[in-house]
Amino acid sequence: MTLKTCKLGSQGLQVSVIGLGCMGMSQSYGPADEAESIATLHRAIDLGCTFLDTAEVYGPYDNEALLGRALKGKRDQVTIATKFGFRIENGKQTGTDSRPEHIREAVEASLGRLGTDRIDLLYQHRVDPAVPMEDVAGAVGELVAQGKVRFFGLSEAGAANIRRAHAVHAVSALQSEYSLWERNLEPEIIPLLGELGIGLVPFSPLGRGFLTGQVKRAEDYPDGDYRRNDPRYQGENYDANVEAAAKVSDIAAARGVKPGQVALAWLLAKGDGFGIDIVPIPGTKRRKYLEENVAGAAIKLDAAEMAALDEALAPGKISGPRYTERGMAMVDR
């Protein structure tokens, strides 16, 4: 199948209905394989999965450079989203930095690594408490006026900062974790997105792999794999979460599809239910899983299946925080 496109927010950005999260191609989930990663990116273009998500901090820098190499001669076939907002020192992320001068420097560097003259969607990766959001939105607005950026996005921002940013320069998309596994956006953020005409780009839409049914305990993953430190993969949390996620596998088995495809179909249906644009970006570095994810767009869950999933994975049924304490401290809620 070839994916359709859809609008993301009310500012005119068109993207594929499912995107591709590229972070894992740079060693967040086990060793990197550049040849397979590039083959996966090229296969994504063939399938119409052309909304590609990266960030300067992935690697750091390696992921943008990988996309730059893979997209030579193919730039006009894709929509590239990248992110600024971290201070990177000696190859490590050491805090936030969204000073306007740093934003300008980061964008120039990203353009160079990506081998392009414009970024289609530029996100602030995390809210910087030291820099007024008005200054951030203003700096991005200047880059839009210069043609270096097309659309403005935020990641993991809270309601107050979304409103402040949008008042200065229209926000097209909010990228935040949202899935059957993590529904913290539903009470306040999703209604706000509907009010302001902002699209939602859920990252980790498969629960960092948990909703695929192919999971192991934290200690069974190799060193360097993100999941070794994920609280939801540890101890009693893991046991409770396996039980909660079983409903996804049950529905998948009844339909003869993959659990991850059911999780993506749930997300796409939620967009219709909430009246907002939802475009998930499942991450993978392998063609096999890319093809599975793209096929999830064709699955339409009925009302009974949606209700069963909503109940089985209601917020109170998921055990453990989604990040370590340090990670949660950077979420603007």
Automatic annotation (TrEMBL):
Official protein name in the record: Aldo/keto reductase
One cellular component term from this protein's GO annotations in UniProt: cytoplasm
Keywords, ordered alphabetically: Oxidoreductase
Organism: Mesorhizobium ciceri biovar biserrulae (strain HAMBI 2942 / LMG 23838 / WSM1271)
Record bears the keyword Oxidoreductase: yes
Family matches, as InterPro entries: Aldo-Keto_reductase, NAD(P)_OxRdtase_dom_sf, NADP_OxRdtase_dom
Classification via Pfam families: Aldo_ket_red
PROSITE patterns: PROKAR_LIPOPROTEIN (PS51257)
Cross-referenced SUPFAM superfamilies: NAD(P)-linked oxidoreductase
Domain called NADP-dependent oxidoreductase: residue spans: 18-313
GO molecular function: oxidoreductase activity
